[in-house]
Structures are given as structure tokens and as C-alpha cells.
Amino acid sequence: MSIVAKKEFADQISSKRFLALAGVILLITVYTVYQGVQGFYNAYTAGMERPFVSIFGISSSLGFMTFGAFLGLLMGFDLVTKEKEEGSLKTLLSHPVYRDSVINCKAIGAFAALSIAIFLILTISLGILLLYGIYPSFSDVVDVFKFGVLTLAYTFTFFAISLFASTIARNSGTALIIAFGFLILFMAILPIFGEIVAQSIVGPPPRPPSVPPPSMPVPPPSGGSAPVVKIDEGKMPAENEEAKKLWEEYERQRDEYWKKKRAVSDTFSILSPTTNYLALLSSLGTRPIFETKDTTKNLIGFIALPVIFFILSYIKFLRMDIV
Amino acid sequence: MIETKNLCKSYAQIKALDNLNLHIEKNEVFGFLGPNGAGKTTTINLLMGMIQPTSGEIRIAGIDVVRNPIEVKKIAGYLPENVGFYRHMTAMQNLTYFAEFYKIDDVRERIDTLLEIVGLAESADKKVGSFSRGMRQRLGLAQALLNDPEIVFLDEPTSGLDPEGAAEFRKLVTWLEREGKTIFFSSHILSEVRAVCKTIGIISRGRLIIKGDIKELTKNLNDSMKIFLETEPQLEDESVLKPFASRIEIVDGDDEGHRRYILECERDCRVEIAKTLFEMGYVVKELHLQEPSLEEIYLRIIQEG
Questions:
Q1: What residues in B contact A13, CB-CB < 8 Å?
Q2: CA distances from A53 to A43, A134, A149, B122 (A)
Q3: Which of B73, B85, B86 sits opposite A94 (nearest CB)?
Q4: What angle separates helix A172-184 from helix A69-76, to the nearest 10 degrees?
Q5: How far apart are CA B218 and CA B223, in angstroms?
Q6: Where are the domains of chain A?
Q7: Mutating which of B11, B75, B85 best tests the A interface, going by the most A Cβ atoms within 10 A?
Q8: Please, what's the b/e burial string for B271-287 (b: 16 or more CB within 10 A of its CB; e: otherwise)?
């Protein structure tokens, strides 16, 4: 088994597209780490606590998110089709090697190549931090390790998707189109579709009461569309009692509405590796990079997707007629 | 050495192979003939355990291929039609990679020897992507022989080769036969099969039409004996041949316009013909039995089949 894995690993790490994309990710990461260092210093001088992992920054995550997805896709889309086109798969399988070993070793080789690439990128980034005199604590290193593991799983998800495309397609061109189709589906279509479905299921949001609120609404702190009502309980006049009740009921209905809508849209978005990756990244560190929420569903979706795609590739490859 | 019983392979509603029964002895050079799409490659893929049969049994050297394809691959070598390699790797790297699947004592020496045999020693360190088709075929034979196999499957091995390459290939097959290998030679090029094979099987539309020794098949399929005749001087009257032949065919004359004859006889009556013509003052310049060519047999079988 190790014979095929060794060859696959060597092929991956020496391929031009792997080196080019890993290089792009490295550049983006190094740049964002440099920017993160400045932010870290500013936070430090302002007396704020800032999670070490946030040095890698949103931009770095986005670099991994887009180019990592491309890297995963481009590593896998022709792994089977190219061998079929060139006839090397038939030659390989005429030797005493189990067919399942071939597909397993292709995945192992790619996984090892991705691991090394991510490890090197993070190590170089940490080296830059050390150069700037920022020394990570043990928990910081653990957070960075988690960041690396999540990123590895994320890129491997797209590898599994493209490997599946490679097993079902007749040629590499078709496999690439299928793989990118899945990428667009998971990164864009599913989250949008989830919103549309949620909207159609839960309907329009509840309307605010016609009576004016007991006191003036205070604008939301950041980007929220629904007004937040600030009620000064101590100075509440008796005639406002009715309005208060109506507004409290409205707020309850509104919260329930958004909760329901989010539950429906989340059902779709947990199938999106990108959404899950960002959600899980945000839960890292003492202070989140992104918003905080329960990420259990995201974690399940994040693990399930590559597993499902790999199992499908495995079954298809084993049943494939090599002619 | 190779035995199949009621072997069938279907793709959806199409029967690619229909009840194939084969028995090939050890050290036999078996030619597997048939038109394109007849089921030759499907048969080899099944024999090599590359695809699963719909029904039937396959045994190679007593090993059940369906249950133990890996064991079969350890004792078999396979040169696929349009053999493929890893184009970014050199010939040496490709062979070294495939050799790792076997327990070979001195891999480097084995590969060097094989590259020498197939005439690629000079190109060992060239990337396969730069190889011509003929070079790839020769490298394909080297990879098929890596494990010093007992059985070698050759699928259309000379297609795409120039005449010199094809002649070299025939020599290699003869060498393999001397080495005691069993050879399964699939081809649609009849002259190749005739040159290297002792026994043949003809397959058409997934069914084995006929199998046997080439000479036996020639004899059995020859309803009447054909005798070729040329005399000096030219016969004045062909009627002298009528007592011996049921049909007399005049074929194109030589450069001097001398006529030649093909006589269809019920038996070999060359002695009587020679005696009669001699007594009449003719010198028999040529008198031999004319056997049907493999092409004739093949076309007849395919048309009847």
C-alpha cells in the first residue's frame, strides 16, 4: 500500500499547480500575518486582550478559504481520469495491487502533501511572529494547531469532492467542470438556496406594533436591521404599559422568527464546507474572530462531507470497469 | 494453464462474451483472433482479473481468478493494447515503480536486462512522455516481464509498430516461447498470429467459433484438395488434367505468359499427375498442395459464424 502512497505523495508535491497554489497561499498568509502583528501591537498598547490565533486574521482565513479550496480541487480532479486517459491505471492494475489500495493511497498521498504544505505555511508564519518578538504560549500553539487542522480538513474536503468528480467523469476536462460545479454549489448556491427556502417556509418577518414604542429606539450597534428598543423601566408612565406589552410581544415573535429562519437556512449551510470552516474558525481562541454560536452542527457537517465524498469515490472506483 | 468454463460478460443488455470455453496448455503460444469488438480485450481483462465476469469460471495455473486476482497477477504478465505509463517519469522510474509490487532480488539488474532485451537500454533515463508508440510497446513488454511470469498476455502487441518493430516483436515472442512461457496473443493481424502461434481461437460477437492447431484447422476446413501446377512447355490442352480434377482454374501466367493451374481434386493425386504429364513429354516445373491461407479460413469462419 505504501508503494502507491509514496508515488502519489511525490507526484503531488512536485506538481507545478500544487507548488503555485501553495505559494499563493503562503504569500497571502505571510502578508496577513504581518498585518496581524500591527493589530496585535495596537491591541496590546490599548490594554485589550486579543487571541493569538487572530494574528492569522480574517484575510488569511479567506486566503485559505478560496485558494485552499482551489488547491484541494486541482489536486484531485484528474487523479483517476488522467490515469484512465493515459492508460497507466490499466498497467498499474495488471500488477498485484488491490484496487482499493490505489484509491486509498491517492487520498493518503494528497492528505500528506496538504499536511506538509499547511504545516510549512503555519511554521513560516510563526517564524515571522518570533522575528517580531511575539512569543506564543502553549495555548496559543494549540489554537494555531487547531487552525491548521481545520484548514487541512477544509482543503481535503475539496480534494475529496474533486476525487469523486474524477471517478465519475469520462475525462479530465469534464471532471474539472464537475468539481467546480460542486465548489460553486457548496460555496454559493447552497447558502443562498437555504435563505430562499427559509424565507418561503417562515414567511415575512412579523410587523412592529402600530403604536409608538414607549421610548425612542436606539440604533443597533453594528449592522443589524431590526431596531433595538431601550425602555427606561424606572420612568415608565402608566399609559405606556399597553405599548410596552405590544412591543415585548413583537420582540418575542421577531426573535422566534429569526431563530426559525436561521434553523432552516442552517440546514442547508451546514452542507457548505466554507460556512462550516468559518463558523469553526470563529470558535477558536478566547475571543472569536467571527461571531460565536453553537458549532456542533457545523462540526458534524464539516466532517461528514469529505467522508461521504470519499466513500462515494471509493465505491465508484471499485466498481469501475478498467477497459 | 488457462481454463475458462461458460464464461460470460454482459454490459447492460449487450453480451460482450457468451459462454467462452477455453483450454490452453502450458508453453502454448495461443493466437486469439477476431474482428474489432469481438470480445478479445474483454476476455483478456477477465483472465487478468481486471473485470468481473457476469457468470462462469476462470482458472489460471489452478488459481481461481475471480477469487484471487492478486495471486494470478503474481504469475502473469500483461501487455495491454495501447499500453500506458506515467509520462512524467522515465522508463527506469516506471519499471522500478511497477517492480516494487513483486519480491525481486536485484531489481536494478532485472530492469537493466529487460531494457536490454526490448532494445530500450539507451532510453532508460528518458521520460516516457517523449517515447514513440513503438518504444512504449517495447517498454510495455518489459513491464509485462518484470516478474518473470509463467503466462504472458499480449493484447494487439504489434498494432502501430513499423515492420521492423513488428519483426523484432515476433523474435521476442519466439524467445519467450523458448523460455517456457505460455503466451496468449490477441490480434486481428493474421500474419502475426500465423508467424508466432501454433494454436488459434477465433472469436466473433463474443462467441468462440473455433479453436485448434492451425495445421489441423487448415486440413479440416479444406473440403477439397487444391493442387498448384506449372509445366514446361505450357500445356496445349487442359483436358489431360480432367481425369484428376473436378475443377480446373487457370491463374495468371508468369512474365512469359505461361499459364498455371489450380486443380481441385478429391485426394492428393500429385504422383499420377506428374507421371501422366511426364509420359506426354512435359516437364513439371511446379506441383504442390495449396492450403487455404489463414486469411481464407478466418474470413470463411467469420462469415459463417
A1: none
A2: 14, 12, 13, 56
A3: B73
A4: 150
A5: 10
A6: 2-177+273-296+307-318
A7: B85
A8: eebeeebeeeebeeeeb
pLDDT digits (tens, 9 = 90+) for A98-118: 999 999 999 999 999 999 998
Which grid cell is B186? 490477441
- Mean pLDDT across chain A, nearest whole number? 82
Cα torsion for B259, B262, B268, B269, to the nearest 10°? Answer: -40
Kindly report the backbone phi and psi dihedral angles of residue A312, in degrees, each rounded to the nearest multiple of 5, phi listed first: -60, -40
Half-sphere exposure of B11 (CA within 13 A, CB side): 12
How far A2 CA sits from the closest chain B CA (Å)? 10
**Do B98 and B74 contact (CB within 8 A), yes or no?**
no
Kindly give the pairing relationship between strand B29-33 and strand A228-229.
unpaired
Distance CA B23, CA B149 (A): 19
Residues across chain A: 323
Burial class (CB in 10 A: 0-12, 13-18, 19+), A233: exposed
pLDDT digits (tens, 9 = 90+) for A40-97: 777 667 666 655 656 665 556 667 788 888 999 999 999 999 999 999 999 999 999 9
Q: How far is CA B274 from CA B231, B258, B290, in A?
A: 10, 18, 16
Question: How large is the ipTM?
Answer: 0.77
